[in-house]
Amino acid sequence: MKIYKKGIGYKYLSETKYFRDRPFIDDIGMVVSPPLYKAYPHAQKITLPAPDFPSSDLWKVITRRRSYRHFTRNSLTLEELAILLWAGQGITSPQGYRTAPSAGALYPIETYLVINRVQDIPAGIYHFNVANFFLEELVKGDFSNALTSAALGQSVMKRAAVVFIWTAVILRCMAKYRNRAIRYIFLDAGHICQNILLAATALNLGACPVGAFFDEEIDKLLGVDSESEMSIYLTAVGKI
User: Fold this and answer.
1) Is the dihedral of CA 61, 63, 64, 65 positive or negative?
2) Residue 75 lies inside a defined structural domain of this protein
3) How many domains does the chain have?
4) Is residue 72 part of a domain?
5) CA-CA distance, 44 to 190, in Å (whole number)?
6) Within a domain: residue 9?
7) Interior/surface letters 96-107, b for 16+ CB within 10 angstroms, e for the rest
8) Is residue 2 included in any domain, yes or no?
9) CATH code at 49?
């Protein structure tokens, strides 16, 4: 056997395959889905403006998209932040469908922000309330050093005006897709991230996705438990 086949990643992919000639069976028992929308009801709310979209050519935006790691010290506007959040997970239909696809429309991904420089918003950590399109303030303060350290010292975290952090509420997806759900969760995060990267390009902002970080240190910053909800992806955004 090739040595890589003994790795946990390869084993996971092998054991979550679908086959025509045998059912997909697991031993994880009953899984109850958490609520579709997460909210912090006692947090201070920051209303986001309705997005005012720039005029952009999709094909030119796709061609221009690059990862930027060097940002100026200029702040994002609240309007720019609103457009980015809407691009990632804005609700686009009465049925609750969003801008980015999700397996089974289960939407297991939550969006948090570490804000360094956004006009009219104090520096701190925030949660994006998708259902009501506002931010929920979790804690004020400068977390750029802690975030940089948790991201293996990547200085792009400190230079960014805002860092998007996506967590996965695992059981939202596992309730339907069982062990195979983990495959779909990372696909969902990728769809959301790409939408934001393209929106940032259309706004003439820089953005850089980041997958290398100390997971539980990021989770601790956000106040999530690393079990039912855990950090899976980051993106730094700033002026260029």
Assistant:
1) positive
2) yes
3) 1
4) yes
5) 29
6) no
7) eebbbebbeebb
8) no
9) 3.40.109.10
Which residues constitute the domain of residue 81?
Answer: 44-239
- The predicted model scores a pTM of 0.96
Among 92, 140, 87, 95, CA closest to 111: 87
Q: pLDDT 10s digit of each residue in the chain, 240 long? A: 689 988 999 999 999 999 999 888 888 999 999 999 999 999 999 999 999 999 999 999 999 999 999 999 999 999 999 999 999 999 999 999 999 999 999 999 999 999 999 999 999 999 999 999 999 999 999 999 999 999 999 999 999 999 999 999 999 999 999 999 999 999 999 999 999 999 999 999 999 999 999 999 999 999 999 999 999 999 999 999
Phi and psi at residue 55, in whole multiples of 5°?
-80, 115
**Interior/surface letters 23-61, b for 16+ CB within 10 angstroms, e for the rest:** eeeeeeeebeeeeeebeeeebeebebeebeeeeeeeeeb
Q: Which residue in this structure is represented by tokens 């804005």?
A: 90
